[in-house]
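TL;DR need structure tokens for one chain.
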Amino acid sequence: MIEDILKELVESFLSFDAPKKLSVSAQEALQRRISPYKNIAGAMVLLYLLFLIALLFWVICMPCPPYPWGNAAAGSFAFYMLAATLGIGLLNATASLLFKHWHFVDFHTAVAYHLNYGPHGLSLALVLWGLFLSILYLAHLHV
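>> reply
TL;DR here they are.
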């Protein structure tokens, strides 16, 4: 019961501005705005998921020295996923500075569209993901 309420609450926070909640005309305008970024955003999402899977296999298969409270694999996973997550944002920001036709917000919105989130929902999801990874990394930082 409480689990269902919490799940519904988090889901509503993340998808409050999802494209499926927009009117038909607003959806069409959104699709026109993000159409130049649609393929690269889809590729970025796919590469990120492949990196996530590869990193999971890597930290599981690589021998790590045990810490008193657990394995260093969780810390390695958190560090590399945090680096990849922040790296994508930095690449987007750099591209928006270097190329006058590249817009940071439109690419961010295109990535959110591929994940069925709105831009604000994706921002919230990225903040929560970053906090989780930071806490996981900091918990395994001290020997």
